[in-house]
Amino acid sequence: MTADLLTVPEAMAVLKVSRWTLYNLIRSGEITSILVGTRCRRIPSSVLDAYVTRLCEEAA
Q: pLDDT per residue over 29-54, tens digit each?
């Protein structure tokens, strides 16, 4: 299985949020990320899709 892994700036662009906001979402557990090596953080695109879907369902 291959997932599209986004960098932090790419994920920021998808959600149209600041770096600070994205890292707060990661810290809170609302968005999960993985570390590649010791410094490269990646966010699976499917996680962002699920996050947006969850927000839309909560707003309805």
A: 999 999 999 999 999 999 999 999 99
φ, ψ of residue 40 to 5 degrees: the values are -95, 105
Residue with token string 């959600």: 15
- Is residue 3 within 8 Å of 42, Cβ to Cβ? no
Say how far apart CA 3 and CA 18 lie, in whole Å.
23
Residue 32 is given by DSSP the state: -
State how far the alpha carbon of 25 is from the alpha carbons of 1, 2, 48, 59, in Å: 25, 23, 11, 18
pLDDT for position 60: 84
Sheet containing strand 40-44, edge to edge, reads 5-6, 40-44, 34-36
**Single-letter residue type at 34:** I
